[in-house]
What does this fold into?
Amino acid sequence: MKKPLSEPVLICGVDEAGRGPLAGSVYAAAVILDPAHPIAGLKDSKVLSEKKRRALAEEIKAHALSWSIAFATVEEIERLNILHASMLAMQRAVSWLSPAAEFALIDGNRCPQLLIPARAIVKGDASEACISAASILAKTERDQEMRRLADTYPMYGFERHAGYPTAAHLAALEAHGASPIHRKSFGPVKRILNKTDADRRT
It folds into this structure.
């Protein structure tokens, strides 16, 4: 039986974090906000301070109708490529929502294959509160994971740059080579590894 048009649809916002870094998993989150518990200050996670992101993440988890965080591993990134791994992480996040979403708003210009209708919105993390919430959850969770990985691989400084290609990170790669969590198919990592191999042969 079809749902009456007057009954609200459960809409989730979906966003990813970690497409650009040279190391670590790519994360995605899906969030269904509760109209009865609006959350002030939701914005694109990149324009928020770390302290504000953490505070909002806790508020989202406490008051959203449903939220989920998922990731695709470095191995999946290498096997599928970063775009398809990002789509996979989004699929997982949406599928794990409970209650389930009936419609998805996706940040960006394309949608993952989902079992529900979806619409892509370029810069949706700045215009749709539910996507902003997903952006915040994905980024805070990924940053936390990179801080944990910094304890295992302290020579790279993951706690400072979260795997992005900063000058310090590239210098550490040249000095120490790639770790098991580096994305070896990514250009900067591949170039440094090839250069290191060439230097060893000379």
Observations:
- The chain has one domain: 11-153.
